[in-house]
Structure formats: structure tokens, C-alpha cells
Specification:
The complex is a heterodimer of chains A (858) and B (510). By secondary structure, chain A is mostly helical. Helix content of chain A is 72%, strand content 1%. Helix content of chain B is 41%, strand content 8%. The chains are: A mainly alpha (858), B alpha/beta (510). Chain B: It comes from Oryza sativa subsp. japonica (Rice).
Chain lengths: 858, 510
């Protein structure tokens, strides 16, 4: 200590600051002071020189270091005790002074001349000092003198704790005012710390003393605690005022009070929890009684009693909020806030299994490592209970199941635990092996589970989307949607158009392969309609209100704008009939056509509104009748129509309307609008797929997607796998593609409506598709079947080439028969189809008879 | 570390502007024991996620001393916890055990210990560990030796002064901010956990020295606080911002509101340090969350805060789908370091959690975004309007702080020239240097502690011994030897490497 006098004066404040900032430095200083006071001078010098040597030998082990030091301190039990405390991280002074304080209080209590009342009064003074009710040491000394003044030996011993503090107080103040401290001042600073620690020891004892209180004393403690808390509030206010006053001071002056405050707090022991403390806690504040300042905060009443912190720094007291509290609601652990799909739940279960397995494995491993460390470092002379953490104890308890607690008790009681540790370690390692094997099993199971559930766990939209999409794809919805959509659209991606055509062609070829020519027509038809959409901007120029159909919003001139070449080249209609269709479509019968279309689909339900529409159409029918008078000459035809209408109870006028609708059933603007809308939707979705594939990391995801879609269409893959592919390679936003197969089905169905000659074969198509699917499942020789289909196609094409018109006439006749017979008509229809087939097989001669009959009829 | 870096630390106080390309000096706090604490079967909070994060960092090679400094934290002492929490609360946490809790129903209710915040083995030690890491990280930032400090085990933002809340017992964020306030006049706290950061906000609700900004799900959701009209009180008025959001918010929507608001905050408030709570329960697919952020979207906030080049403290927080939490925080550690990590995860002992893609990136789902552009625009206008009412940064001169900051340096140089080469050794030296003693005495204590540290380090490395759990004070000896479970050889090597590197300068002859 003498050698430190040479330090520069201006360094003292920073040194002091750093000393006070770091408790380890203080403890080291305390340790050295005690050792020097305990040891003879020569032993102390030897001690210091040994420390220097130890520092120079950097690779010295901890055990050897302790061995050397203990050898030097041999014969000095108190010094050894101080050293042991220091090594374990406790304050040496604190431990020593705690022992002295305890001794002092015990002897005062044991003295027969001091009454119990006086003894309790002494404890009371110390307790009050501890709780800051008595603020100054002078007051403590004064009260103690009054209590035990008659016993000089006790009073003199008590002064060991107090007089240094009193004497050091004045020099300490002096050192604060002086920038340079003298050698003597430093000595006093050191003693001041020593004195504070002595008082600290005394306070600790005072706390312990309360535990010995009588029931009456207990009651007094309660009251005191209550007063203490009240004082704490006042104390806080005083501190704030003090802080305000101190703010204008110089920086250097501000530093000392803050540092001193920290020092004092560090010295005080933490509050010890006891079960009796539970009853003394003030109740939690009831928010409903408090004034709300902002939505989530309420202002605490001024007289509110809340739990306090004795260790807040000056900074903390000035900044932390203790006047408002927030009002929370609910629990963080609550699962109801988000709807999770089952796949997500499966992922969570898998994760939890891995987690629980890992926790067991890691904790047992940590305990085993810890015990190995114990064995290595301490051999058999160790009280294991002192070193085990709660986690280690829990592991050992679980290790022995029902006997776990007994095992822990045995460990704590036994003196020689090395053998027990060896047994426990062996059991732990065995358990670790078991857990490791279980983990390996999980490692094999989990990949399958996560692979099956991960992609779908990211999908929260597709279930509701599928339901909505079915409704959205109905003709009514499509027509309503079409009216609202602006027709001016720019479709810049021609490749998507080609893809739409290719896919529909593929889908159609999968559904029916018995006739080659119709397939070719469908391919070109789709292309035609796709290209028609490019002309929609032109249509707008010619659109007027009078010419717009009230149901689909499409211009009645739509057909007029379709290139004649398209219809002529691709349809079986003759030029004459095309002209006729155009003329008919210009009339107002399109609305009735719409009704009939819905009847066919089983969606139409007659209501007042529809009947009114029919009534409004009557005058137009009359006009048309007069225009096309040539129909009235066919008495036989008209008569048959009337008969069928009578069966449904229609009047003569309705009969006429029905007849005219039949003529236009093959093609109407609404039907075309639905088809265009479906193609539009399909375009949009393929565009989504293409955009998503561009964002995907996999190369050429779009091509793979199209392959997968074709597989779905031909039945080689199912919906689940198709959806899995989309989610995996195109991401969770690809859910809009999940209904593409249904969308394509509707497109095919809609195309069949537009081509009248194929309308009757829609049932046949479905039968063919079902039969084909069945065959795909049963017959692996698919190529062979395709060869047969090809031959059949050639045969039919050749047959049709010689008499293109006659089959159409035959079909019309068959359809008429169907209507007149209701449900049984379907069976008859099948009968007619079978008859037709046989007729075809008989060759041209069989056609001449019905052909000539039809001609005569016309 | 050369003196110029110390100067750079000083510059950060003045918020000097640096390009993003510049490397940040990062320190990372991790305690190997933290993953062993267990809230209970079926409880969503799993400290194990921090251990998983650490394993990913190790196998990506981010724990190399050349990349960042890895530190094992000193557990916070009871006195340190009482800087914010009340005496009785801390005393109760220290004393209560699963066995003794049954007889203390009244106290459990008073301190809100229950299903959300259960009593489990080692509860108090767990609190000491993560709080000590956060405070230690703040101290590192104060020293100016690092630009970014990370503690993924921290970020427990719900804890109140005298009660636990929302899986949180000790509010390490408040303690860390109090530490930062010793040096910085203003500290900014940003919370991107899906839950409102109510504990931190309440603690600083009446002061203008801390600004709290929380982006959270609001409306019939825990903790129920965080109304946009909660703007602070008294001196703290307008220094509290709450950004209420709705289900399904995605990356673009989130950044469209986060970046404008935080840019304005940084301009108006000019904090000396920023604390960013990176709760990962705002990610898509979280067990308790309902947002739809991808891992990259979540990390965009970290990247944005890093670009301001203000001392930055990164803390963990919520996050209950642990396979997503580990990847998110690993990715964000890479962001802090400026490292581009490969998407394919390296094999590690937790590899099976991350199937089937084994990707570093957390994917967003296709759930509906209920935040409309109009709503977000309204919220943004409201927040920016409150910000415009702020005084434009309090008028305290930075110069007043500089002398105090530099004051300790000359003395350290005079007493021991080696200290500049080993800042952590500086901490160790400070621990044991008594005032008023001769230089010889100083050398004695330095030698004693250093030898103990070195010896223990070697023991741990050679024999993979688990460090005995001593009292808080001796943990100073382990400051330079952060430790990992012995079975992970790569981890052991990576974790111990920084300690070895730090010992080299100290062992060089004077």
C-alpha cells in the first residue's frame, strides 16, 4: 500500500471509478488486505513472490496453484479460510465479518444480565438500520449505547463495527473536495470500505435475528415491513429531488454520488424469500379502479402500495416508469387465433417428437459430462449435493424412476460418493445409448412425414378455392362475369394460346378417339375461337345498345364478324346454312335459346320472371312467322311439333316458340360467350403457371407442369399428385391450377354444344371416356388399342366421305323421336344409334332409302 | 484489435455514415447450457431453439474468430436483476422450485406464475443466463469494440417489474437498455415480434430517453395492448409508437410500413444505440403466430437496421416453430456479418428438423393478407403524424460524452500497454486490479486469474469437461472460453477457437 503513494493524483478518480464499477477488484483488494493483516511480514513477502512466479508460469494448473498457496499459508487457519472463500468467489471480508457479527449477537443473547426486552430492542435498532429507517450511524451508536451502555465490554466490541465509519466519514468528504488525495486519505478510503463491510455483516446478522423472533416479534416485523415500504416511496421522492438539485453541479461531482450509491447497493444482501413473505405482499393493482391515460395504460393512485426495488441505480430511478401500468388480456399460449390445416399439425407433431427426443438426450448427456468432470476434479471427497444443479438432479431422479428421490437422498448423505458416481455414470451412459438409438429411428421416420405434409402445410387457400371455382364455372356465373369484364384485353403471350389449343386437343383426343375428322375440326375450332379474341377490340366500335344481348352482353353482330372462311372451311355447315344461321341469330329468339340450353343442363327452373320474358317475345315470333312462310306448308312437321308441346301443356303460341328455338339450338351468342369466357379463364391460369415457374428455382418448371397436366387428363396421375407437384415446383400460390382438369372438362362440353351434329353424341362421348378409362386400367397394351382406333377412324372417314349430308338428316329425325317420348326416349335414342351403326356397316345402299325419304319430306 | 478500431467505435457514437459493404464487428453471446432448460411438455416455448441456431452457425462456419467473437455470458446477479425488477419478485424467482411452489399459491398468483410462465427446474439460473447475456452484449457495445452484439436467448419482452408474463420472467431488454443509457443519451427499441412488446414499453413509457416502436398483431390477441393511440405519457409523450397489424401480412406489405416509419424515426430521434428484438413468431407457419413473413422478409428488417451503422443489439424473442426460428436467426446472423450463406443447409445434428427441402430459407404460405393497402396507408400516416410532433432530437451535445468515454484509456495504457491488444483481457484485468496497491500486487492478481483461466480452458478443450456451476462471480474465468456440448466436435473446435486466439496476445512476453 505504501508504494501506491507514487501514483499520479489525477488518476485517482478514474481508478476509484473503475474499482467501484467492478466487484471482483474490490474483492481482490479485500482479500489482500485480510491476508496481510493475518500473516507475518516474512510470510506475506513470500506469498507475494510466489504470486509473481505463478503468473510467469502460464501453464500451471489450478490444483498446483492452490497447492503452492496453501503450503505458504500452512499454520494460518484464518488466512486459509479467507483464501478458500476468495477462490469460491465470495467476499472474504463479508464472510469473516458475518462470523464475527454472529458471534457478537450470540454472546449478547447468552448474557444473563441482559434482559430479553433489551436484546430485542438491540435487534430492532439493527433491523431499522437495515431498512434505512435509521439513516445515520451516529443514531445507531446512540441507541445501542442506551441499550447496552451498562456493559462496557459489549459496547466496546460493538464499536469495532462503528467507530471506523464515523472517523472515516470526515476525511472522505475532504478527499471529495480535493482533486489530489494524500497518502493518509487513501488509507482512510480503504478503511471506509472495510467499515462498510463490517456493517454489512452486522446487517446480515440482523436479518437472521428476525428469524428467531417470538410470535409477538413476528407481528412487529410485519408492521415494520409495512412502514418500510411506505418509507421506500418517500425515499424515492427524496432521491428524485436530490437528483434535480445535483444536476446543475459539475460532472466530476455528479460522479461521486452515483458511484457511492452503486457501492452501497452492491454491499447490501439480497432479500431472502420465505413462505411467510407471501402473506405480506400487497395485492395487485385493480385496473378497473384506475384512470386510463391511453387505451392500454392506467394511472396508479398516488397512495398505491407496490413492490419496490432497492437496487435501482440513480439512472434507473429517473427513467423507469412506476406511475402507469399496462393492462394485458389473454394468454400467449393460445392456439385459437389461426386456423391450421391438418398437414401443418402433422408437421408440428413431427417436430415435437424430435424436440422431446433431443431434450432427453441432451440433458442426460450434460449430466453425464458433469459427473465425469466431478470425478476428475474432486475424486471421492466431494459433497456432490452442493454441486449438482436442479437440472442434474432431475435427470438422476428420472434415471431411477420411482427410486429417484431415494437415490438423491442417498447421495447427499453418503460420505464416499465415488462409487455411487461411477454407478450413476454407467447408468447415464446406458440411457444415452438408448436415447441415441431412439433418435436414429426418428431420423428415419421423419423425412417421409415431412415430405408428405410440408408442401400442403403451406396451402391454406385451395379447399375454399375449389368450392368457389365450381360455382364460378357455371354458365350463369360465367355470363354474369362476362358482362362485367371489359372486352378490351391485350393477350400478348401467343404461346399460351397455343398451349390452350394443344391441351384441349389432347383432352378431346383422350375423351373420344372413334372419329378422326371431328377431332381435327375441334383443334382448328379452338384455334379459331382463340384468334377471335384478338378481334374483340374491333367489336367495340360496332357495339350499340340495341344490338347487345341482354343476357351475355355480347354483340348480336358477333357471328357476322366471324370470318366466313373460318366457319366455311372448318364446319360441316353449307354456305347456305351459315347464312341462314346468321339471319336467325339476328332475331330476338336468342333469349329463348338460352332457356333451352339451361333446360338441357338441368339447371333451369321456371319462374315468373322467365315466363314474362317468354310473353314479351311473342310479337317477334309473329313477325318471323310471316317472314318465313315456307315453313307453314309442312303440315306434317308442324303437327308432330304440336303434339309434343301439348304434352307439356303449352299453348299454340308457345308451340311456335319452341319450334323456332329448336332450329337455333346449335349455336347462340350466349353459348359462344360461355366458351370464350372459359377459354379466357384457362388462358389466365396457364399464365399464372408460367409466371410461377419463372420464379421457381427448377429449370423449365412450366414444361414439367404441362406434362403433369396431360398426365392428369389422361388419368395416369391423380389430383393429389398433381396438386403436390404444383405446390412443390410452383409454390403455394399455384392453388389456382388445382381445378384445371374440371375447367377443361367444361370447355369440352361447351364445344360440343356449339357443334350441333355432335350434340347427340355427348352421351356417347362420356360412355367412350368411361370405357376408355376402364380399358386403361385393365389393358396394359395401350399402343395396340390405339392402332385399332386408328383403323376404325380410317374406316369411318371413308364411309362418311361418300355421303356427307345424309347422316345429319338421319340424326335430326332421331332427335325428334327422342323428344316425343320423354325418359323412354333415351332408350330409344340408344336403339336408334345402334340401328345407325348397323346401317353404316351395310354400306351406301342402306343410306339411299332414308335419304330419298328425307328429300321427299323436304 | 488495433487502436484505430477503438477510434471507429468512437465514431459510431457520432453516427458516422458507412457503406453497407463495410464489415461490421460482431460479437455473439451464447451459453451452452441454455438449451437444456425445459418449460414443460407441450409448452410452446423451447430454449432448445437457441441451441439449434448455434449448431447451424457452427456448421456454416460463422463462429470462426475471423468472423465474429463468441462469448459465454456471465450470469446476471440478483442485484443486476433488481435494477428493474422488485426485490420480492427476484427473491421469489430465486427460491421457488417445482416442489415448493404448491404451497405458495398466493405468491404464484401475485407474480403471475402459472401455465404461461411455469416453474421449471433451473428457472432462476435460466433467467440469470439470458439476462446476463443481454447485459453483457450491451456492455460490449458501450466499450465500442463491436458494432453489433447478438443474444438469441434474450428478447423476453413481456416481463413486468413485479410479474412474469407471456413466457417471460426477467425483462433482459430493459436491463440492457439501462446499461446502454449509461453511455448514450437516446436509445431506440424496435420490436418485430408478432406480440406487442408491452413490458419494455411500460418500463419506458414516461421517458424521452428511450423510444419504443412495436410492430405487432392487434385485435383479440395477446397481450391485448399496443393500440395505435398508446403514444407515451408525460415526458415520454410521442416517444412510444405502436403499429397494429392484421393477419397474413406478407413481406411487401410489411416493408412498405416498416421502412418508412423507421427511416423517419432514425431521422427525428437520432438514437445513439438501437435494440432490435427479432421475435421469430412473426414468420409464416409459426405455431402461435398468424403473419405470413418469409425468412428473407423478416431478415430485411435486420438488414435495414444494420445499414444505419448505429451500435445495434440483436435479441431473440418469440418463435414457436423451432425449425423456422433456428433458420431465421442463423440467416440474420449472416446478415449482421454481411455473409451470403448458401441455401442448402450443411449437415448437423438437427438436420432432420428441416426436411424435406433442407433449405436455409423459411417459405411463406398462400394465406390471405387481411391488411389492405388502404389500412396500411392510414396507419403509416397516423404514425408519421405523431413523429412530426417530436422535438427534433433533444439538444444535448455529443461532445459532453466524449471526454468521459475516453477518460479511462490513458490510464490503461500507462498501467499495462498490452491491454489494447486484448480488450477482453482488459475486462479480466479490471476485475482484479485493486486500487492503491503496488504494481507488484497488480501483477500478482493478474497472474493468478490468468493462469486459472488458461488452465480451465485447456482442461475443457482436452477432456470436454462440463464446467462446474459455481456462483456468479467465478464465471469471469470462463469469459474467454465459451463452450458447446462435447459430442459436437466441430462445435467444440469452433467455440474454443476464439478463446485460444484471445489467449495468444496475453501470453506474449512484455
Amino acid at each position: 500500500m505504501d508504494s501506491s503513494a507514487g501514483d499520479p493524483g489525477d488518476g485517482v478518480p478514474s481508478k476509484r471509478a473503475r474499482t467501484e464499477r467492478d466487484p471482483y477488484r474490490v474483492e481482490t483488494m479485500e482479500f489482500l488486505v485480510l491476508v496481510k493483516s493475518e500473516l507475518p511480514d516474512d510470510v506475506y513477502s513470500h506469498f507475494v513472490r510466489s504470486m509473481i512466479k505463478i503468473r510467469r508460469q502460464r501453464n500451471m494448473s489450478i490444483e498446483k496453484c492452490k497447492e503452492i498457496i496453501l503450503e505458504i499459508l500452512d499454520g494460518q487457519p484464518e488466512a486459509i479460510q479467507v483464501f478458500e472463500h476468495f477462490i469460491q468467489g465470495y467476499s472474504p471480508c463479508r464472510a469473516k465479518m458475518r462470523s464475527k457479527a454472529h458471534n457478537f449477537v450470540e454472546r449478547v443473547k447468552a448474557c444473563p444480565d441482559i434482559s430479553r426486552e433489551d436484546f430485542h430492542a438491540l435487534l430492532n435498532v439493527l433491523a431499522k438500520y437495515y431498512k434505512n429507517e435509521i439513516k445515520t450511524s451516529e443514531e445507531v451508536l446512540e441507541k445501542v449505547e442506551r441499550i447496552i451502555g451498562n456493559y462496557p465490554e459489549f459496547l466496546e466490541e460493538f464499536k469495532i463495527f462503528v467507530p471506523h465509519h464515523l472517523r472515516a466519514h470526515l476525511p472522505n468528504e475532504k478527499s471529495c473536495t480535493s482533486p489530489k488525495s494524500s497518502r493518509v486519505s487513501e488509507t482512510f478510503v480503504s478503511f471506509t470500505l472495510d467499515a462498510m463491510n463490517k456493517l454489512d455483516g452486522l446487517r446480515v446478522k440482523a436479518t437472521n435475528g428476525r428469524n428467531q423472533a417470538t410470535p409477538l416479534k413476528y407481528t412487529q416485523d410485519q408492521n415494520q415491513n409495512h412502514e418500510g415500504r411506505g418509507y421506500s416511496l418517500r425515499h424515492k421522492q427524496t432521491k428524485r429531488t436530490t437528483g434535480l438539485i445535483e444536476n446543475p453541479r459539475k460532472q466530476g461531482d455528479d460522479k461521486s454520488p452515483h458511484a457511492e450509491d452503486d457501492e452501497e447497493h452492491k454491499a447490501e444482501p439480497l432479500l431472502q424469500w420465505s413462505t411467510s413473505r407471501e402473506n405480506e405482499l400487497p395485492l395487485k393493482v385493480d385496473p378497473s379502479n384506475c384512470k386510463h391515460c391511453t387505451p392500454s395504460y392506467c394511472l396508479l393512485p398516488k397512495n398505491c402500495v407496490t413492490l419496490q426495488s432497492s437496487y435501482q441505480t440513480e439512472l434507473g430511478r429517473s427513467i423507469l416508469n412506476d406511475s402507469l401500468v399496462s393492462v394485458t388480456s389473454g394468454r400467449e399460449d393460445c392456439y385459437k387465433f389461426r386456423t391450421k390445416n391438418q398437414y401443418e399439425e402433422n408437421m408440428f407433431k413431427c417436430e415435437d417428437d424430435l424436440f422431446e427426443s433431443d431434450m432427453l438426450l441432451q440433458r442426460f448427456r450434460a449430466t453425464a459430462d458433469f459427473i465425469e468432470d466431478l470425478q476428475y476434479r474432486f475424486g471421492s471427497n466431494v459433497k456432490i449435493q452442493e454441486h449438482l444443479t436442479p437440472l442434474h438432479k432431475r435427470c438422476i431422479e428420472q434415471l431411477y424412476d420411482d427410486s429417484g428421490i431415494d437415490m438423491l437422498d442417498a447421495l447427499s448423505e453418503s460420505e464416499n460418493t465415488s462409487s455411487a458416481l461411477a454407478v450413476i455414470l454407467s447408468r447415464l451412459n446406458q440411457k444415452i445409448g438408448d436415447f441415441s438409438e431412439a433418435r436414429l429411428s426418428l431420423n428415419k421416420m421423419c423425412p417421409d412425414t415431412v415430405a408428405n405434409n410440408y408442401y400442403r402445410s403451406l396451402d391454406h387457400c385451395s379447399p375454399s378455392f375449389k368450392q368457389l371455382d365450381m360455382e364460378r364455372m357455371s354458365p350463369k356465373a360465367l355470363l354474369a362475369e362476362d358482362k362485367q369484364i371489359s372486352r378490351i384485353k391485350s393477350h400478348t403471350d401467343i404461346h399460351i394460346h397455343e398451349d390452350v389449343g394443344v391441351i384441349i386437343n389432347y383432352a378431346y383426343s383422350r375423351s373420344c378417339s372413334t372419329e378422326d375428322k371431328p377431332m381435327m375440326n375441334w383443334t382448328k375450332l379452338v384455334k379459331a375461337f382463340v384468334s377471335v379474341k384478338f378481334q374483340w377490340p374491333d367489336l367495340k366500335d360496332t357495339v350499340s345498345r340495341r344490338n347487345v344481348c341482354e343476357h351475355c352482353g355480347m354483340s348480336r353482330d358477333f357471328l357476322n364478324n366471324i370470318p366466313v372462311a373460318v366457319l366455311t372451311n372448318e364446319f360441316v355447315f353449307s354456305s347456305k346454312e351459315v347464312e341462314s344461321l346468321r339471319a336467325k341469330s339476328n332475331e330476338s329468339t336468342s333469349s329463348l335459346d338460352h332457356f333451352d340450353a339451361e333446360v338441357e343442363e338441368g339447371e333451369f327452373i321456371p319462374d315468373v320472371e322467365n315466363i314474362q320474358l317468354r310473353v314479351r317475345c311473342l310479337p317477334t315470333n309473329n313477325s318471323m312467322h310471316s317472314t318465313y312462310g315456307h315453313w307453314s306448308g309442312s303440315e306434317e312437321h308442324k303437327s308432330s311439333r304440336d303434339d309434343s308441346n301439348n304434352e307439356v301443356g303449352s299453348s299454340e303460341y308457345f308451340g311456335r316458340t319452341s319450334k323456332e328455338c329448336d332450329a337455333n339450338r346449335g349455336i347462340s351468342c350466349c353459348t359462344l360467350a360461355v366458351l370464350c369466357r372459359l377459354l379466357q379463364v384457362m388462358y389466365e391460369r396457364l399464365l399464372v403457371a408460367k409466371n410461377l415457374s419463372e420464379g421457381a428455382s427448377t429449370h423449365d418448371s412450366y414444361a414439367h407442369f404441362k406434362e403433369k397436366l396431360c398426365s392428369l387428363i389422361d388419368g395416369s396421375t391423380d389430383n393429389w399428385n398433381f396438386e403436390q407437384h404444383c405446390l412443390k415446383f410452383l409454390g403455394p400460390n399455384s392453388y389456382v391450377l388445382f381445378t384445371l382438369d374440371k375447367l377443361i372438362d367444361r370447355v369440352i362440353k361447351q364445344i360440343c354444344k356449339i357443334y350441333p351434329s355432335r350434340e347427340d353424341s355427348s352421351v356417347l362421348q362420356r360412355q367412350e371416356r368411361s370405357r376408355r378409362t376402364f380399358n386403361i386400367l385393365k389393358d396394359p397394351a395401350l399402343p395396340a388399342r390405339r392402332t385399332n382406333s386408328s383403323k376404325e377412324l380410317l374406316h369411318h372417314q371413308n364411309a362418311r366421305g361418300t355421303s356427307i349430308e345424309l347422316p345429319k338428316q338421319g340424326r335430326e329425325e332421331a332427335k325428334g323421336g327422342c323428344e316425343s317420348h320423354g325418359d323412354t326416349g333415351k332408350m330409344k335414342q340408344n336403339h336408334f344409334q345402334r340401328r345407325k351403326k348397323r346401317a353404316l356397316e351395310n354400306g351406301p345402299p342402306s343410306f339411299s332409302q332414308p335419304g330419298s325419304g328425307n328429300q321427299a319430306h323436304n | 484489435m488495433d487502436p484505430s478500431s477503438a477510434g471507429a467505435g468512437g465514431n459510431s457514437l457520432a453516427s458516422a455514415s458507412c457503406g453497407d459493404a463495410q464489415k461490421r464487428r460482431v460479437c455473439y453471446f451464447y451459453d451452452p447450457e441454455v438449451g437444456n432448460y425445459y418449460y414443460g411438455q407441450g409448452h410452446p416455448m423451447k430454449p432448445h431453439r437457441v441451441r439449434m441456431t448455434h449448431a447451424l452457425l457452427a456448421h456454416y462456419g460463422l463462429l470462426a474468430p475471423a468472423k465474429m467473437e463468441v462469448l459465454r455470458p456471465l450470469p446476471a446477479r440478483g442485484i443486476d436483476l433488481c435494477r428493474f425488477h422488485s426485490d420480492d419478485y427476484v427473491a421469489f424467482l430465486r427460491a421457488v422450485t417445482p416442489e415448493t411452489q404448491l404451497g405458495q399459491v398466493r405468491a404464484l398468483r401475485r407474480f403471475n406464475i402459472g401455465p404461461d410462465c411455469p416453474v421449471f427446474d433451473g428457472l432462476y439460473a435460466y433467467c440469470q443466463t439470458y439476462a446476463g447475456a443481454s447485459v453483457g452484449a450491451a456492455v460490449k457495445l458501450n466499450h465500442g469494440t463491436h458494432d453489433i452484439a447478438i443474444n438469441w436467448s434474450g428478447g423476453l419482452h413481456h416481463a413486468k417489474k413485479s410479474e412474469a408474463s407471456g413466457f417471460c420472467y426477467v425483462n433482459d431488454i430493459v436491463l440492457a437498455i439501462l446499461e446502454l443509457l449509461k453511455l448514450h443519451e437516446r436509445v431506440l427499441y424496435i420490436d418485430i415480434d408478432i406480440h406487442h412488446g408491452d413490458g419494455v414499453e411500460e418500463a419506458f413509457y414516461t421517458t424521452n430517453r428511450v423510444m419504443t416502436v412495436s410492430f405487432h398483431k392487434f385485435g383479440d390477441y395477446f397481450p391485448g395492448t399496443g393500440d395505435i393511440r398508446d403514444i407515451g405519457y408525460s415526458e415520454g409523450k410521442y416517444y412510444c409508437l405502436n403499429v397494429p397489424l392484421d393477419d397474413g401480412i406478407d413481406d411487401d406489405s410489411y416493408q412498405s410500413i416498416f421502412k418508412p416509419i423507421i427511416s423517419k424515426v432514425m431521422e427525428m430521434y437520432r438514437p445513439g444505440a438501437v435494440v432490435l428484438q427479432c421475435g421469430a413468431d412473426s414468420l409464416s407457419g409459426d405455431r402461435l403466430g398468424c403473419f405470413n413473413l418469409s425468412g428473407k422478409g423478416h431478415a430485411e428488417c435486420v438488414k435495414f437496421m444494420r445499414s444505419f451503422n448505429v451500435p445495434l443489439l440483436l435479441l431473440g424473442g418469440g418463435g414457436y416453430t423451432i425449425r423456422n426460428v433456428a433458420r431465421c436467426w442463423c440467416y440474420e446472423t449472416g446478415v449482421a456479418l454481411g455473409e451470403e450463406l448458401q441455401e442448402k443447409l450443411p449437415y448437423n445434428e438437427y438436420y432432420e428438423y428441416f426436411g424435406p427441402e433442407y433449405s436455409l430459407y423459411v417459405a411463406a404460405s398462400n394465406m390471405e393478407n387481411r391488411n389492405t393497402n388502404k389500412q396500411l396507408e392510414e396507419i403509416k400516416c397516423n404514425i408519421l403524424d405523431n413523429l412530426s410532433k417530436l422535438q427534433h432530437a433533444p439538444s444535448v451535445q455529443f461532445q459532453e460524452r466524449i471526454p468521459e468515454t475516453k477518460l479511462p484509456e490513458p490510464d490503461e495504457d500507462q498501467e499495462d500497454p498490452d491491454e489494447r491488444h486484448d480488450p477482453d483481457s482488459d475486462m479480466v484485468l479490471d476485475d482484479h486490479k485493486p486500487t492503491g496497491h503496488s504494481a507488484r500486487s497488480l501483477i500478482h492478481n493478474i497472474g493468478v486469474k490468468r493462469e486459472i483461466t488458461e488452465t480451465e480452458t485447456k482442461d475443457q478443450h482436452g477432456k470436454r469437461l462440463t464446467t462446474e456451476h459455481k456462483g456468479p462471480e467465478p464465471m469471469a474465468e470462463d469469459l474467454g472460453s465459451s463452450k458447446q456440448a462435447p459430442t459436437a466436435d466441430a462445435n467444440a473446435v469452433a467455440v474454443n477457437a476464439p478463446g485460444n486466439a484471445r489467449n495468444e496476445p496475453g501470453s506474449s512476453p512484455k
